[in-house]
Amino acid sequence: LYHPGQHAIPQISLGSTGTLTDRTSSARVGFTFTASPNSVIRFAYGRYTQPSITATEQVLTYEDGYQMALNLYGSAFYNIGLASITHNNPIQFSNSWDASFEQRLRGTDWSFKISPYYRYTSGESVLVPLAGGIPSSFNAGTGRAAGLEVAVQEGDPSRNGWSGELGYTYTFAQ
After folding, report:
1. Would the N or C end of the chain have less CB density within 10 A of its end CB?
2. Rounded CA gap, 138 and 71, in Å?
3. Tens-digit pLDDT string for the chain (174 aa)
4. What span, in angstroms and rounded, lies between the C-alpha atoms of 94 and 104?
């Protein structure tokens, strides 16, 4: 088994507390306002969460802890300051907002919809491959995406006859 300081390998903790617990809420809300029989306005907000993959929170795959420590030493995992096989990755969060204006053209079966949206994500997992093919990650990513969806519809898909929809989405993400 691994012994700290043996063969010039620094001390790396192979133990763990046994339990990692994260708690959070993931709220969603939406509103619809009918401005007229032909016009509808919608708004929605959601806070979405995603836990880390459990394989990235505890990475002991060798029965021989010394071999594990040898593989961790000098790896990208060890070099970012994670000197234990167990670390608590925070939950990934995404806040999404969208709105839409839907309008049926009076006296026709044509309608259109315009929907702007925005999404902000924090705590995205960044994968750090370890020696020996061991998966791991830490939460450092942030993402922003905004865009606009536009759609035009003709006909009524719930009735007999022709109907169709043409849509376009523009997304700016960083």
Report:
1. C
2. 18
3. 344 444 554 454 555 555 667 778 889 999 999 999 999 999 999 999 887 776 666 655 455 555 555 565 555 555 666 656 666 777 888 999 999 999 999 989 899 999 999 999 988 877 776 666 666 677 777 889 999 999 999 988 788 888 999 999 999 998
4. 33
